[in-house]
Amino acid sequence: MRPALLDPLFASLDTLPGVGPKVGEFLARLFGRESIEDCRVVDLLFHAPHSIVDRRHQPGVMNALAGAIVTIKGRIDRHQPPPPGRSSMPYRVFLQDDTGELALTFFKVKGNWLEKQLPIDDIVIVSGKVDWFNGRASMVHPDLMVREEDAETMALVEPVYGLTAGLSPKTLRRTIEAALTRIPNFQEWLDEALLEKQDFLTVRDAFIALHEPRDATDIDPRAPARRRLAYDEFLAGQLSLSLVRQRLRILPGTPVKATGALSGPVISALPFSLTGSQTAAVADILADMAREERMLRLLQGDVGSGKTAVALMAMLAAVEAGGQAALMAPTEILARQHFTTLSRLAGPAGVKIDVLTGRTKSRERDAMLERLASGETDIVIGTHALFQDTVSYHRLLLAVVDEQHRFGVHQRLRLTAKGVSPHMLVMTATPIPRTLVLAAFGDMDVSKLTEKPAGRKPIQTVTLPTERLDDIVERLRGAIEEGKKIYWICPLVEESELSDLMSADERFQILVARLGPVAGLIHGRMAGPDKDAAMLAFKNGETRLLVATTVVEVGVDVPDATIMVIEHAERFGLAQLHQLRGRVGRGDQASSCILLYKGPLSQTAHARLSILRDTEDGFVIAEEDLKLRGEGELLGTRQSGTPGFRIASLEAHADLLEIARKDAAYVIERDPDLTTPRGEALRTLLYLHRRDEAIRFLRAG
Ligand SMILES: Nc1ncnc2c1ncn2[C@@H]1O[C@H](COP(=O)(O)OP(=O)(O)OP(=O)(O)O)[C@@H](O)[C@H]1O
Predict the structure, then answer these.
(1) What DSSP element (H or E) covers 211?
(2) d(CA 326, CA 633)
(3) Among 99, 176, 324, 446, fewest CB within 10 Å belongs to which?
(4) Tens of pLDDT along 202-222?
(5) Helices (H), 394-468
(6) Which of 279, 307, 576, 580 to mutate to test the pocket of ligand 1 (most atoms within 8 A of CB)?
């Protein structure tokens, strides 16, 4: 049971003042959750600021750098409302300081609030982003405007947070401030000696310091508050992994003897022969599965290296031994794609396959659950719906978890907690650095697919500025006429006033207007069946160009798609670009990838794109990504930190990971059921970091 002391932090977000349905929806989107019901107050605490606004530094208008957020104190000189009847023109208020003039620019101004708030000759302090145009400085909708006499009320240093369209910085900050008041006084779960040695803050102080930075050094991952929280995050992860391993040792596995009765015919019907790496991985897996001990193996393979075929061979072995296998995919699209592929490959051999996702209708679902429970179904594919409490298996011998790069042990834990003890194969895309494997999975056996299937041609990658868009569209017209298939990737779905990113919707309209009805559209906010239809139309060739967001990033397999255009490539993380690009070059035709960027590029962004242009080796890319991200440039939405961690970063906190691993081992050895006072406190830690599923394994849980 979760300690009562955590209740205020695990209350739903809408228990915080100012969080209604609208703000709730924005926050859910910010945290990547379906709805506000899935968000807790504690989520806000872990949403760390990525920079600060420092209003102590007031450079003067003429010294303000374009694009920088600056604070300027000056006298209001004059107002320039839009001419009558031209309300779409901006309202400008001119402010002067010793160095020059700044135009405060406002759109859609109603009433006379500006005259009241910024009367002529008043001295005011404004803060916001400065733009330069023809030697004139302007600031569009300042973030802050206060009169000189109210200056004390102004926060001199403010944290800046990642936002989502519609959510204002002010609202988010107010909500986070409210969340901070809910932090209880925790019983310390760290060892006294470690606290002293590392000079760690208490958890409560660390959260407060995280959200109340006093200067830029407080934003650095090495800041004391972040180190404390990162350590806790690693410790919670390592502890829960150790608890699982301890449990795994207790529950024996069932030895699985592959007979070849199914895999034989399936292999001979494959349209290709397995690569050496695939064969070796299959051999490793079958050897593990034949043992009494349960398998816990990681299958790593670069994009397009053919992990699915390996997983299929393992699943067939389970079926041959009279059992069942489950394959859990990270997304609905992928679950359905696996279903189609595996049905095609294994269906003819008489293997019964079902697909179960959150979207499966209740009647169909009931029938499916019955088939699973009776053992009629051999292989079930699905999303996390597979491991809900209502699902019971006849004889589950193997669980394959296709994690791609959503690392975490949660689903695996849930499965083990169901009392079944299948062998476990975890698949991840992109070779990931060893430290990351350790952080995400603990010590696991690893098989790697180092070879690409024969006949693959290198993907020709070019980087081009957005200005070349028209040429590209013309070239695509030619390519479509030749029968080629093209992905066009956009970063966001919605048109946002705050950003100049081209949304998928908007790009789709433009491309249809230019190229005709050959284009399709797919994005995360579409209804499930619409997504399927869009994918299918592209697969079948009814559409030849698929405008997509990153929903196609993981696993999507359309082998005859050969061209990919990625818009705003500079905004994606390297590993993510590698994943995206991996959607082409999956067949024997030559493929190309066009990375469109909007300049000017920062040095890091430039380096990032060059690496991608120069190599297709996922391992090199992953290592470089880790190195480059360290430069503090927060590009890419999900790739901006270490996957699966909210504060901890392997790059900045590798030393802490090692300590946490030892600490966890020490605890488990002496207090395997977490019953000592420290053990009790550590349970709170596990809940706080949502690693509490491990607690169910404890005898006194
Ligand atoms: N040995 C092989 N020879 C030729 N083609 C193969 C071989 N193995 C798999 N393929 C094909 O290569 C493509 C990629 O395989 P698969 O979808 O399993 O990749 P993956 O490793 O899951 O990659 P990603 O992570 O990019 O999705 C598929 O179209 C598959 O049919």
Answers:
(1) helix 203-211
(2) 39
(3) 99
(4) 999 999 999 999 988 999 999
(5) 410-417, 434-441
(6) 307
